[in-house]
Amino acid sequence: MDTAREKGSKLDPKWDADGLITGVVTDSQSGELLMVAHLNAEALRLTMETGEAHFWSRSRARLWRKGETSGHVLRVVELRVDCDQDALWLKVEAAGPACHTGARSCFYRRVERNGVLQGNFTIRSA
């Protein structure tokens, strides 16, 4: 157990072998899970400095600000770190859908016992 990291009062992320930390993103009002992404040190710094969510795209191998092309920016209301500092929780106000598919959440499908994906859409007025 890394007592200093777990008991300390300083942010000291435990980066993985690729220099990343997992970010779990939820709606600050409803608590709905919107997306999961990864941050490197630069993405975390920019997120903290600007108040807008920045991530590291593993597939594109580049830094990106959520909403940079769609306009669906995630304004960070609260940022939390878990007990051993290897995951972040971003509570956000979303300026539109969080998912690149246009769905409000990236978690719009439910996995049934037989492994079949079923739609699980919730329609909400803005």
Which features would summarize this protein structure in a list?
8 strands, 2 helices, Ubiquitin-like (UB roll), mainly beta, 4-stranded mixed beta sheet, 126 residues
Describe this structure in words.
- With 126 residues, the protein is mainly beta.
- The chain has a single domain, classed as Ubiquitin-like (UB roll).
- 12% of the residues lie in helices and 35% in strands.
- The protein is built from 2 helices and 8 strands; from the N terminus they run H-E-E-H-E-E-E-E-E-E.
- The chain has a 4-stranded mixed sheet with strand order 2-1-6-5, with helices on one face. Strands 3-4 form a two-stranded antiparallel sheet.
- A hairpin with a 5-residue loop joins strand 7 and strand 8.
- InterPro entries: PRA-CH (IPR026660), PRib_AMP_CycHydrolase_dom (IPR002496), PRib_AMP_CycHydrolase_sf (IPR038019).
- Keywords: Amino-acid biosynthesis, Cytoplasm, Histidine biosynthesis, Hydrolase, Magnesium, Metal-binding, Zinc.
- Catalyzes the hydrolysis of the adenine ring of phosphoribosyl-AMP.
- One of its GO terms (molecular function) is zinc ion binding.
- Its EC number is 3.5.4.19.
